[in-house]
Automatic annotation (TrEMBL):
Gene3D superfamilies: 1.20.5.430, PAS domain
Organism placement in taxonomy: Bacteria, Pseudomonadati, Pseudomonadota, Betaproteobacteria, Burkholderiales
Coiled coil: none
Start and end residues of each PAS domain: 21-87, 157-224, 276-343
Protein name as it appears in the record: PAS domain-containing protein
Amino acid sequence: MSPPPNRLSNDLDALSGCAAGLARAFVSLSSDIALVIDEHGIVTDVVQNEQAPMDASAQAWIGRPWSQTVTGDTRGKIESLLADACTAGLGRRREVNHQGAQGHELPVAYTALRLGEKGPVLAVGRDLRSLAAIQQRFLDTQQALERSYWRARHGEMRCRLLYQVATDAVASVDVRRESLVAVNAAAARLLQVEGASAQGRLLAAHFDARSRPAVVALLARACASPEAVATQVRLAGTHLSISLTATRLPEARQPTVLLRLRQADPVLDDPLALGSALARHVDGTPEGIVVVDRLALVREANLAFVQLVQAPDLEAVIGQPLERWLPGTAMANLRSLHSHGLAPTQRVVLVRGDEQDLAVDLAGALLDDVAGGDAGFTLRPSGPHVLTADARAAELLRAIHALAAELGGSPLPDLLREAQALAQQHFVHTALDRHPGDAPAAARLLGITIDELAQLRRQPGFTAPPPTR
């Protein structure tokens, strides 16, 4: 059945015999490829830019149905393009994908024009690979930005979580007696009590008279609610306003509430400096900080914890059981936390990668989401090497003060060289103190080779660290 006549086709009848020449003209002027298609949809001629042909394999399309030269998902577009050209004389632009010789796809945008009522169809195409490459680069950039954003968000959430473990003041409270059961070190400082003597003290007595009814009401609300409840109060004898957040401990034998006491923190209140400040505090402290889930699997940890357990990097500890380094201790403390909310500081043994045990002071508390069962622990190294590290820090400070006293008597470059030598010696000693008897581990901590470390230790003025027991 022949297509219905249309004015555009009739006007172009005279050009039907010039299809090949028109194809070359279009390609030379503004297109990348032009095809001549007969009335049966067969490609009879292919013209490409001689200077930069789109694809050498395109010449093999001659004699084949045009719809068979494209991928299956765009074949319908070719059929629609031919139908439009036959009925209206002009087929609107459609984007298709040709199958290239080496298996890659060639995206092309075609517009089709029928040369007369019975003439061939001239299909003029633009190579979309450059546009597709730009679009792909845009998508890649967008995905990279999204990945960077989520990495930054995860980094901030990690720092917030570890910062909470390191700094939060936490107390467990007997609801019936409205008295303290236990407090961690931060809460003891805030409430001005000795940790050991806090048990049995009335909680409300630590707040001013106007705040006491709110404290008592908070305990009652927390005991009756599965969710955390909060209020603002003032400490007794001060104008210090703090936020109290109370959460019921569902696994406690007696009605017990876990209380978090938070005062305004400049680190958290400055959004511009938040990320760097949290990172400096979390990864700059010598205390190991670790967050575990209900099964005591490590969720997050700071760099000090990674160094304490002598793991190669943070990824090596994430998902690992805390029992690996605190055998017989981690699960017992976690069970205690679920019942009491707090684990008092105790001396435990940390089993490290080099099998040299290390004594640490372990303390822990449940996190905000009590129902989730996540807990945070801090590990502070204890023993002779800690005293050595403190003594070395004091010695470095005295030496810097002595250098400062020479200002005006010695040139600044000389003083800077001496300060650099002192700092270098201090860093080497610190690495050796953290890894006693393990020079390779100390070298890794310093970011130098074992030979470079040995050379530094042979320098004049370097004193060997005292032997550890």
